[in-house]
Amino acid sequence: xxxxxxxxxxxxxxxxxxxxxxxxxxxxxxxxxxxxxxxxxxxxxxxxxxxxxxxxxxxxxxxxxxxxxxxxxxxxxxxxxxxxxxxxxxxxxxxxxxxxxxxxxxxxxxxxxxxxxxxxxxxxxxxxxxxxxxxxxxxxxxxxxxxxxxxxxxxxxxxxxxxxxxxxxxxxxxxxxxxxxxxxxxxxxxxxxxxxxxxxxxxxxxxxxxxxxxxxxxxxxxxxxxxxxxxxxxxxxxxxxxxxxxxxxxxxxxxxxxxxxxxxxxxxxxxxxxxxxxxxxxxxxxxxxxxxxxxxxxxxxxxxxxxxxxxxxxxxxxxxxxxx
Length: 324
Ligand code: KPL
Known about the structure:
Residues 198-320 form the Ketopantoate reductase C-terminal domain. It catalyses: (R)-pantoate + NADP(+) = 2-dehydropantoate + NADPH + H(+). By secondary structure, the chain is an alpha/beta fold. It folds into two domains: 5-196, NAD(P)-binding Rossmann-like Domain (Rossmann fold), CATH 3.40.50.720; 201-322, N-(1-d-carboxylethyl)-l-norvaline Dehydrogenase, domain 2 (Orthogonal Bundle). It has helices at residues 5-10, 22-32, 83-88, 101-109, 127-134, 180-189, 199-220, 230-249, 256-269, 276-282, 293-302, 308-322, and strands at residues 15-18, 38-43, 51-55, 69-72, 79-80, 91-94, 117-120, 142-148, 151-156, 159-164, 168-175, 193-195. The strands form two sheets. The protein has a nine-stranded mixed β-sheet with strand order 5-3-2-1-6-7-8-11-12. A three-stranded antiparallel β-sheet has the order 4-10-9, with helices on one face. The chain is globular. β1, α2 (22-32) and β2 form a beta-alpha-beta unit. The longest helix has 22 residues, at 199-220. α7 crosses α9 and α7 (199-220) crosses α12. The structure holds ketopantoate. Ketopantoate (KPL) binds at residues 123, 149, 209-210, 213-214, 224, 266, 270, 273, 275-276.
């Protein structure tokens, strides 16, 4: 007999994943493969701010071999997210689109346990700054930050394909530090994952990669691999040259050669992939441009720096978003 959502809660799902796109589902699979009890939180189609949860019933039916393996949830129960669910959540992993993070977390914070720990694992930067202000009201909560290059693709709503291994970097953001057991579980469950003392530098490095690959593939409607061509390499170098002084103004030291190497490594390793921004534009969905090149432009403005190419790219993507 399939257990009810309440039966599952008896086993106390104390980790929740907010955002059930490909990466969120992949992290869920990786955690449940280590016998963690995980709730998937998703927006209820009946209301824009209503969350429902999908307790995972049977992780054993999902295989977790990396690369090209399809994961599917065999038996999901959708139930309204109750105060009881929230009372159990000690670690909330946020894998939504960057532009959804603050809107979804703002009403949730007051309902979570006072000592709940939040891990942000999304593309782009910026939401952590807004959250640092909101979390000032919740002194026992803490925030960890992370970035992952694991590849995953959604085949259907609850079916994903793990398309590529990749580095995952996690680290302390602010507030209370993550409990040692959760930190150990994350590092054990996610392949090639590492705890970084200086996570902000890692996030800027990933931001640089996304600033180059995401908008250019969306504008030129190409796979990541096409950016290896010389005409794109000049644009990429220019984007990185503009970004480096902005990161420096925030105390983050980046070097052009090293960044170019990292960007080209990703172009090479994900040559056949279509970037998330390419896919968002293709499917007429909002993009994360405001948290990628937009974040660089906004920080630059605050420091009186000029980033004309990021600015122009931001405008191009906004105009593509507006074409429906
Ligand atoms: O993170 C990515 C994305 O598509 O958002 C990259 C690294 C560019 C891989 O496609």
